[in-house]
Amino acid sequence: MEELVQRIKEDGRVLGEGVLKVDSFVTHQVDPNLMEAIGYRFAEVFADAGITKVVTIEASGIAPALFAAKKLEVPMIFARKAKSLTMDEELLTASVYSFTKQVTSQISISRKFLSSDDKVLIIDDFLANGQAAKGLVELCQQAGATVDGIGIVIEKSFQDGRALLEEMGMRVISLARIDSLKNGEVEFLEGDA
Ligand code: 5GP
């Protein structure tokens, strides 16, 4: 997605350890117009898939997922990273190792929001080693829901996430694919959409 690639070139910052900082438009301050364009692009790609729910994980997946859900005219569900006192129903849960925070946490969604009738589009901001997306797939599978595909805003293609998800039989659509972050430079591969 050219608009996203341009924005990463202009405002992304490479941190050591293969991390890209995009806090001025995705992960802290959020650009609503860009998020709308991203969400709508995912909706276009999955328009004929019969998606019934968009599932993401808090916090930075919420903005693109919400716009995709709006366009697809379905609800958006975000998995929570911390259990809230108000989550008093039965929960679907999975363990996720966080690439950026380097801790394992439990993610959860109330069982009542997903069922075996659902066809899910999973969306997340980054794909690194694939643990967050894998955790979301597991939550959907626990509910008996079908995952039709995974939409990623920024894929770091030099990490193993895509391979892991494709081995699970998942279709992965990434709008920006990064080949390398070496020497402080962002090198891109052709994106999927
Ligand atoms: P994974 O589970 O695929 O290893 O990592 C995905 C999660 O880690 C994303 O939800 C994102 O929050 C975070 N993440 C991974 N790599 C980066 C990165 O380079 N920059 C930022 N800002 N977040 C990242």
Description of the molecule:
- The chain is built from 5 helices and 10 strands.
- Helices cover about 30% and strands about 30% of the residues.
- The protein has helices at about 1-10, 30-45, 60-70, 130-140, 160-165, and strands at about 15, 20, 55, 75-80, 90-95, 105-110, 120-125, 145-155, 170-180, 185-190.
- The strands form 3 sheets. The chain has a 6-stranded mixed beta sheet with strand order 4-3-7-8-9-10, sandwiched between helices.
- Strand 8, helix 5 and strand 9 form a beta-alpha-beta unit.
- It has one domain (about 1-190): Rossmann fold (3-Layer(aba) Sandwich), CATH 3.40.50.
- By secondary structure, the chain is α/β, with parallel strands linked by helices.
- Helix 2 (about 30-45) crosses helix 3.
- The mean pLDDT is about 95.
- The structure holds guanosine-5'-monophosphate.
- Guanosine-5'-monophosphate binds next to strand 2, strand 7 and helix 4.
- Keywords: Cytoplasm, Glycosyltransferase, Purine salvage, Transferase.
- Its main location: cytoplasm.
- It is an enzyme of class 2 (transferase).
- It catalyses: XMP + diphosphate = xanthine + 5-phospho-alpha-D-ribose 1-diphosphate.
- Its EC number is 2.4.2.22.
Describe the largest sheet: 6 strands, mixed
CATH architecture classification:
3-Layer(aba) Sandwich
Which ligands occur here? guanosine-5'-monophosphate
The helix fraction, in percent, is 25-40%
Strand order, main sheet: write it out. Answer: 4-3-7-8-9-10
Secondary structure: number of strands: 10
Number of helices: 5
Counting structural domains, the number is: 1
Outline: globular
Task: Supply the CATH class.
Answer: Alpha Beta
CATH structural fold name:
Rossmann fold
Low-confidence segments, ≥5 residues, pLDDT <50? none
Computed structural class: alpha/beta
- The fraction of residues in strands falls at 25-35%
pLDDT averaged over residues = 96
Binding site for 5-phospho-alpha-D-ribose 1-diphosphate: 128-132
Pathway: Purine metabolism; XMP biosynthesis via salvage pathway; XMP from xanthine: step 1/1
Enzyme class: transferase
GO molecular function: xanthine phosphoribosyltransferase activity
